[in-house]
Please model this.
Amino acid sequence: MPKELAKVYKPSEFEKDVYQMWLDRKYFHAEPDSSKKPFTIVIPPPNVTGQLHMGHALDETLQDILIRYKRMQGYNALWIPGTDHAGIATQIKVEQVLREEEGLSRYDLGREKFLERVWDWKTHYGDRIVNQLKKLGSSCDWDRERFTMDEGCSKAVKEVFVNLYNKGLIYRGNRIINWCPKCVTALSDAEVEYSEDEGFFWHIRYPVKDSENEFVEIATTRPETMLGDSAVAVNPNDARYTHLVGKTLILPLVDREIPVVADDYVDMGFGTGCVKITPCHDPNDFEVGKRHNLEEILVLDDNAKVNENGGKYVGLDRYEAREKIVRDLDAGGYLVKVVPHSHNVGKCYRCGTTVEPIASKQWFVKMKPLAKRAIEAVKTKETEFVPDRFQKIYLNWMENVRDWCISRQLWWGHRIPAYYCGDCSHMEISKTDVDTCPKCGSKNITQEEDVLDTWFSSALWPFSTLGWPEKTKELEYFYPTSVLVTGYDIIFFWVARMMFSGLEHTGHAPFKHVLIHGLVRDSQGRKMSKSLGNGIDPLEIIDKYGADALRFTLATGNAPGNDMRFHTERVEASRNFANKVWNAARFILMYAQSEDHADYKVDMSALEDEDKWIIHGCNRLAREVTENLDKFEIGMALQKLYDFIYDSFCDWYIELVKPRLYEGGDTAQKALSVLVTVFSSVLRMLHPFMPFITEEIWQAMPVEGESVMIAPYPAFDSSISFESECEKMNDIMETITAIRNRRAEMNVPMSKKAKLFIDSHSAHGFRDSEKFYEKLAGASEVVFGKCKEDGAVEIITHAANLYIPFAELVNLDEERARLTKELDKAKSELARVKGKLANEGFVSKAPAALIEAERGKLAKYETLVETITKSLENL
RNA sequence: GAAGGCGUAGCUCAGCUGGUUAGAGUACCUGCUUGACAUGCAGGGGGUCGGUGGUUCAAGUCCACUCGUCUUCACCA
Model:
């Protein structure tokens, strides 16, 4: 029993049921099947405790469009959903709640108890985002939902860690890393964001030892780090300072003796040409320190307070220490000047705190060898970026990448599988738990406290979700995946790391294409953010306008890879389009009473011109839409669908066919067969973009197949070619438009029945379309008049939007003025076309079809000028 | 410092490998409560496609320079 369509389009009343039906029928589930080609997408896993925002909505919409399209095309389409444990973000959130509600810190609870709390949190909020994804219509295979910390993913993480370690690609070392004193953890380079801050250059002079009134002047933006200075460096070619190299300086306030060293790193032209070297608090200084064997003095602790190496400044926060040190330097006569200076300061991407470069013992992934293959894979087009400009960004990063700091001083995450023997200090790296030292047999074993960067597990997502390291049939069949859809903001965080991980561990790039989209901004172009409070909740939009309208909005209106501004007005427009589709369906259903789709099979041999025209247009649309989608031009494909449905199908075809439907009988049945058939194609083409409404309508239409989402996607049929009929129809439509314009000009009111005398030049389209008039004339209550001697035609029609006006009295002066204006216009067009055809270059070099078209126009304008001239004379 | 995006109608933006008279949505104006749809219908005004120069028979589209704007990456203490 087919569904009845409600009178008014209210998406909230059926979207949920439609989704449930898909779930019940298991349409989303995919199993390896060698008879079909796979098409695989893995979802960029949202934060498990996160909430759906517009960025997700865009990302999921694009993926769902592709996956539904390919599924309908007969691919074995699999979309793997899942969530990410999001180390820092989640831990911070749970700590915050713990502090607010119970006044406790994670240390109060201890590691084990705290992690229990996080898991509780995860189970409580873990379904929220998944349910939100469902509201969007995402056709993910929920049977295969994964989590970056589930058993399988954890196994993959350990496997990868051990593999890389054994290959020498993971090492533990003391290096300068970015330290966030608020999150109390190390960060990778990618996790630091830079912004310009107003600061100062403090010029300080360091006295030369055993030398009266001899100083070296240095400049620094972070005077507090002088506590950890172990040298001053100058350029070896700097004549100003060569005499100082090898001498000893006295570090003010600290009274430590430090050497002057020569190093190429120093830029002679910058500042004073002398650089204080603080190996433990600056990456460059660290390198200089290594080269010159300098002492490494760490002066800040984990909270960025001065530690025991800071003498009398111990315990002071870094900024308090700065203030006090500057004051003391000034008092001691060491401060030469203070110069305002703006410079880039690194901030933690999670909390915004200024990060501190600190020498610390951390775990690293050696990037150079891994990056090499990741670069090759893109250069050889094993993986392609869409749009391709993002390839450049990727390559640029990959080519300059530094080793990846993967250890985090957090509790929530994959604990590093390194085990230390308390007795023989042996370190064992192992996929399985270690409780006995393999070297000395001691049971005094402790596991590494640190966890891995969240992105370490995300990097494995395309294959860990398919069962790797097991050789599952899913991995065999669905991997490498087809396309990865994500925003340009995580190319470094995620895409790059998946690339080298996939290549290293599976031997394949993890995906064929990377479809990059932009950010969704607010209507003023600002980033949507919690702190600005300018975020628009996709769920509210869905409740009000429907998921289809939101999807339509997100999928159109901006070029691939560009940011888009979100305007609610655009969602309204999208909803109105959905309403249009809905009502077109209701109109067809008013006349299509049979429930048997076989009753609407089109007989190609017995069609009217307008039937052929719409069938031809629909067929061409199928070709263009598939071409666009195959090139990931999603917005373009949808725009074409919109134009066809709104303009060709609703505004023209339905109106043209109304007289036939009113008449009934054979001609009506023929029209209905075309209406149903074309509309069925349209629904299928539109389905990936607007799944809910197309399904709801499908269920009510006499069409073949139990669901639109498993119906075949329309393919181009090269045997359909109605060029001449289309040309004729174009003429007819042009004339009808001209008639409409006449009515408006003459200010003739519309009425149900109307009558018009068309002057001869307006009627030129009609003259070739005798049949069309007969059709109109065949409708009930329609009066049809033949061409009168003066060239006028009298027409009456019922078609609502083809109202043709009644006008018997024409003001001769006005008519003359109008015709003169039209004649001028026609003449100038004629001149333009003539000029073009007289151009030798054009005639010899332009494509033949184009020249042919121009010749056609020439003839057309020549006749037009002729007929208008005649009409004028007849007045 | 390097790379890249953007600049097209009042506003938000499309415009693929150069090719009919540069489009859409929205806003505005005019006229329509017609038997799918006022979440609608018909029509209209509004653009020298940031500027200059070049290539070409042909440039919004390609090239050079330039102005404005935004972003990313790298940064010298």
